Amino acid sequence: METKGKDNYVEVFGGSPWEAEVVKGLLESNNIQAFLKDETMGSVTSPYAGLGGEMKVLVNEADYGKAIQLVNEKDKSE
Protein backbone atom coordinates (compact mmCIF):
# COMPACT_ATOMS: atom_id res chain seq x y z
CA MET A 1 0.00 0.00 0.00
CA GLU A 2 1.25 3.44 -0.86
CA THR A 3 1.60 6.06 1.88
CA LYS A 4 -0.06 9.34 0.98
CA GLY A 5 0.16 12.85 2.45
CA LYS A 6 -1.57 13.36 5.79
CA ASP A 7 -3.05 16.69 4.67
CA ASN A 8 -5.28 14.85 2.19
CA TYR A 9 -7.10 12.67 4.74
CA VAL A 10 -10.84 12.93 5.27
CA GLU A 11 -13.23 11.38 7.78
CA VAL A 12 -15.50 8.53 6.69
CA PHE A 13 -16.72 7.29 10.08
CA GLY A 14 -16.98 8.32 13.73
CA GLY A 15 -17.96 6.11 16.66
CA SER A 16 -16.73 3.98 19.50
CA PRO A 17 -13.16 2.66 19.36
CA TRP A 18 -14.51 -0.84 18.72
CA GLU A 19 -16.73 0.29 15.81
CA ALA A 20 -13.92 2.37 14.33
CA GLU A 21 -11.56 -0.60 14.41
CA VAL A 22 -14.17 -2.73 12.57
CA VAL A 23 -14.60 -0.03 9.90
CA LYS A 24 -10.82 0.36 9.57
CA GLY A 25 -10.49 -3.40 9.04
CA LEU A 26 -13.26 -3.37 6.43
CA LEU A 27 -11.56 -0.60 4.50
CA GLU A 28 -8.12 -2.17 4.70
CA SER A 29 -9.50 -5.52 3.52
CA ASN A 30 -10.67 -3.62 0.44
CA ASN A 31 -7.20 -2.10 -0.16
CA ILE A 32 -8.02 1.31 1.29
CA GLN A 33 -5.42 2.65 3.70
CA ALA A 34 -7.18 3.90 6.83
CA PHE A 35 -6.11 5.56 10.07
CA LEU A 36 -7.79 6.10 13.41
CA LYS A 37 -7.96 9.51 15.06
CA ASP A 38 -8.74 9.70 18.76
CA GLU A 39 -10.89 12.79 19.28
CA THR A 40 -9.97 12.91 22.97
CA MET A 41 -6.26 13.13 22.22
CA GLY A 42 -6.68 14.91 18.88
CA SER A 43 -4.06 12.87 17.06
CA VAL A 44 -3.74 9.86 14.83
CA THR A 45 -3.11 7.05 17.28
CA SER A 46 -3.75 3.44 18.16
CA PRO A 47 -7.31 2.32 18.94
CA TYR A 48 -6.29 1.58 22.53
CA ALA A 49 -5.60 5.17 23.56
CA GLY A 50 -8.59 7.02 25.02
CA LEU A 51 -10.90 4.02 25.07
CA GLY A 52 -13.83 6.12 26.25
CA GLY A 53 -13.76 8.79 23.53
CA GLU A 54 -15.00 8.83 19.98
CA MET A 55 -12.69 7.59 17.27
CA LYS A 56 -12.68 8.85 13.69
CA VAL A 57 -11.67 6.76 10.69
CA LEU A 58 -9.70 8.71 8.11
CA VAL A 59 -8.86 7.79 4.51
CA ASN A 60 -7.03 9.53 1.71
CA GLU A 61 -9.26 11.98 -0.12
CA ALA A 62 -8.77 10.01 -3.36
CA ASP A 63 -10.28 6.90 -1.70
CA TYR A 64 -13.26 8.73 -0.15
CA GLY A 65 -15.91 7.65 -2.67
CA LYS A 66 -15.14 3.94 -2.43
CA ALA A 67 -14.64 4.13 1.35
CA ILE A 68 -17.92 5.89 2.10
CA GLN A 69 -19.75 3.41 -0.14
CA LEU A 70 -18.29 0.49 1.86
CA VAL A 71 -19.19 2.16 5.17
CA ASN A 72 -22.75 2.83 3.99
CA GLU A 73 -23.16 -0.77 2.77
CA LYS A 74 -21.92 -2.02 6.16
CA ASP A 75 -24.46 0.19 7.95
CA LYS A 76 -27.33 -1.11 5.76
CA SER A 77 -26.42 -4.73 6.45
CA GLU A 78 -26.57 -4.32 10.26
Characterization of the model:
The protein is of the alpha+beta class. The protein is built from two helices and four strands. It has a four-stranded antiparallel beta sheet, covered by helices on one side. The longest helix has 14 residues. 23% of the residues are buried.
Please state how the strands of the largest beta sheet are arranged side by side.
1-4-2-3
Strands, total number? 4
CA-atom Rg in angstroms: 12 Å
Structural class: alpha+beta
| Terminal CA distance | 29 Å
**Helix proportion range:** 25-40%
How many helices in DSSP terms? 2
Largest sheet: 4 strands, antiparallel
Spatial shape? globular
Please state roughly what percent of the residues sit in beta strands, choosing from under 5%, 5-15%, 15-25%, 25-35%, 35-45% or over 45%. 25-35%
Low confidence ranges: none
> What is the averaged pLDDT score?
82
Secondary-structure element series: EHEEEH
Structure described in brief:
The protein is 35% helix and 26% strand. It has 78 residues and is of the alpha+beta class. The protein has a four-stranded antiparallel β-sheet with strand order 1-4-2-3, covered by helices on one side.
